[in-house]
Amino acid sequence: MLYERGDEPPRSAVRALLDRCGSFRWATHVPRGRSPETFRQRLWYLPARDHGDDTRDEMVTLNGLCEEACEARVDIRPLLLEVAELSSAGLA
User: Fold this and answer.
1) Which residues touch 50 (CB under 8 Å, ≥6 apart)?
2) Fewer CB in 10 Å around end: N or C, the chain?
3) Could you give the CA distance from residue 5 to residue 48 in angstroms, rounded to a whole number?
4) What is the pLDDT of residues 29-46, one digit of tens each?
5) Other C-beta atoms within 10 Å of 86: how many?
6) pLDDT band at 13 (very low <50, low <70, confident <90, very high)
């Protein structure tokens, strides 16, 4: 995913695209799965959407993702820390 592998300019462009095109943002998704890699990909989609229309909805989504991953016995802590650290790097 470009957002995950890119530095700040491509990430900013992806966030701007998803912000401008709300219907596209709403209609796109990362496929579901029960692997650590799928959880990681779905985590990356959250900062790309940049809180969507409502930050509260994003929190509900994040909680649901974490619950699904825990049920699949995925160790979520390192993945959450990784995505949070790299997502925050563009804000520093």
Assistant:
1) 15, 18, 19
2) C
3) 12
4) 788 888 999 999 888 888
5) 14
6) confident
* Backbone phi and psi for residue 50, each to the nearest 5 degrees, phi listed first: 50, 50
Widest CA span in the chain? 36
Own/partner pairs for 45-51, CB < 8 Å, 24+ apart?
45/1, 45/3, 46/83, 47/3, 47/11, 47/15, 47/83, 47/87, 48/1, 48/3, 48/11, 48/14, 48/15, 48/18, 49/15, 49/18, 49/25, 50/15, 50/18, 50/19
Tokens 């995505």 belong to 83
Residue at 24: amino acid letter: F
To the nearest 10°, report the CA torsion of 59, 84, 86, 53: 10
